[in-house]
Design brief:
CATH topology of the largest domain: Rossmann fold
Strand order of the largest sheet: 6-7-8-3-9-10
CATH superfamily of the largest domain: P-loop containing nucleotide triphosphate hydrolases
Order of helices and strands: EEEHEEEHHHEHEHEEHEHEEEHEH
Number of domains: 2
Number of helices: 10
Structural class: alpha/beta
Bound molecules: adenosine-5'-triphosphate
Helix content: 25-40%
Oligomer: single chain
Distance between the termini: 43 Å
GO molecular function: ATP binding; ATP hydrolysis activity
Protein name: ABC transporter domain-containing protein
Largest sheet: 6 strands, mixed
Keywords: ATP-binding, Nucleotide-binding
CATH architecture of the largest domain: 3-Layer(aba) Sandwich
Shape: elongated
InterPro entries: AAA+_ATPase (IPR003593), ABC_transporter-like_ATP-bd (IPR003439), ABC_transporter-like_CS (IPR017871), P-loop_NTPase (IPR027417)
Length: 353
């Protein structure tokens, strides 16, 4: 049996002139927490809504647990739970009534539903407020209840569209921990958020969409490998040709005297955006490159920026070049690749609203 819980193939969706999805295909595997990232208006909610059977695609197909799934498919609906970006809960119902309502909507009832409702209230920390109207809740409590109603019918696939937006750190952490617990219990989760650290921590694989198109879909380590590393090398007493010497080191893709920040911007997957490992040693006495201390050392320090794919083999050569050119190596600064930089590399820095 296939391990694919959700397979979307070549999904297209247009709202008037706006192309929300322009042929998106992806597969979510059983048991994984799958991250979906994209700037505002990228098409995430539209995709999730089609995947959950709430919106009809113009073309393309959705399979849920290997079965064709559309807005008209009733039999598979109970397998999916969706925590919508705009809250689904009813403000005039109490927390308990909301949970009962959504449970019944999916065909649950009786003692099983009542005990599930109690379980969910406890899981999201709302037992004490069970009989209060949801409209009286704080933003964090509403978000927690929104999560509970998404899973009250015990779905097999949980889709969460920005579940922690607009909540305080306590509620955010609570929701985050609940998602981890649900995942540990075997639920497959699709998680979309603008908080990169949430996605980086939770998700096994991550898709990035932009302008209705899938830009990348891979594991976090593989996404991070797309980035080059930029190393800032500060030396005193460097000769005029020092940048060229650095450029000549095997593995150095680019070298130049200190450019203005920010780092050069890559475009799409063709360009690998430089990133940096923050490891600065400003004090020469702690320099890990004692061999790099040449006899020169005169003049004010100059910083060069080099772009490398793999920092390891290059650093020793940088130190050797300092010795050879009689310069003092005074600092090396690098920066860790992050999901945020991968995201910006894939989607650009232009504002989207
Ligand atoms: N019901 C609709 N009618 C018209 N246009 C829509 C509708 N829903 C979405 N759109 C448009 O489709 C595009 C994709 O929107 P969508 O909400 O899917 O993006 P998103 O990635 O979820 O954005 P955000 O991060 O802001 O929630 C946007 O240009 C949006 O304005």
């Amino acid at each position: 049996m296939s391990d694919a819980v959700l397979e979307v193939t070549d999904i297209r969706k247009q709202y008037g002139e706006t192309v929300a999805l322009n042929g998106v295909s992806l597969t979510v595997q059983r048991g994984e927490v799958f991250g979906l990232l994209g700037p505002n208006g990228a098409g995430k909610t539209t995709l999730l809504s089609i995947a959950a059977g709430l919106t009809r695609a113009d073309s393309g197909s959705v399979k849920l647990f290997g079965e064709p799934f559309t807005r008209d498919t009733r039999s598979l609906r109970h397998l999916v739970g969706i925590g919508t970006q705009d809250l689904s809960i009813y403000p005039d119902l109490t927390a308990r009534e909301n949970l009962r309502f959504f449970g019944k909507l999916y065909g649950k009832g009786g003692k099983t539903l009542e005990s599930r409702v109690d379980e969910m209230l406890g899981a999201v920390g709302l037992t004490d407020r069970a009989n209060d109207r949801a409209g009286t809740f704080s933003g964090g409590m509403k978000r927690r209840l929104n999560l509970a109603v998404a899973v009250v019918h015990a779905p097999k696939l949980l889709i969460l569209d920005e579940p922690t937006t607009g909540v305080d750190p306590q509620s955010r952490n609570h929701i985050f921990e609940q998602v981890k617990a649900l995942s540990a219990a075997g639920l497959t989760v699709i998680y979309t958020s603008h908080y990169m650290e949430e996605v980086q921590t939770l998700c096994k694989r991550i898709a990035v969409i932009d302008n209705g198109t899938l830009r990348a879909c891979d594991t976090l380590p593989n996404l991070l490998k797309r980035l080059d590393t930029t190393v800032r090398v500060t030396v005193s007493g460097a000769g005029a040709d020092f940048s060229q010497r650095l450029q000549a080191i095997p593995g150095v893709k680019q070298s130049r005297p200190t450019p203005p920040s920010p780092l050069p911007e890559g475009k799409g997957e063709q360009a690998r955006e430089p990133t940096v490992l923050e490891t600065t040693f400003a004090d020469n006495s702690f320099s890990p490159f004692p061999l790099g201390r040449g006899g020169g050392g005169v003049g004010s320090p100059t910083t060069f920026e080099i772009v490398v794919e793999d920092i390891g083999p290059v650093l020793a050569r940088v130190a050797s070049e300092c010795v050879a050119s009689g310069a003092d190596l005074t600092a090396v600064t690098t920066t860790e690749p992050t999901l945020e930089r991968v995201f910006l590399n894939l989607t650009g820095r232009g504002l989207r609203d």
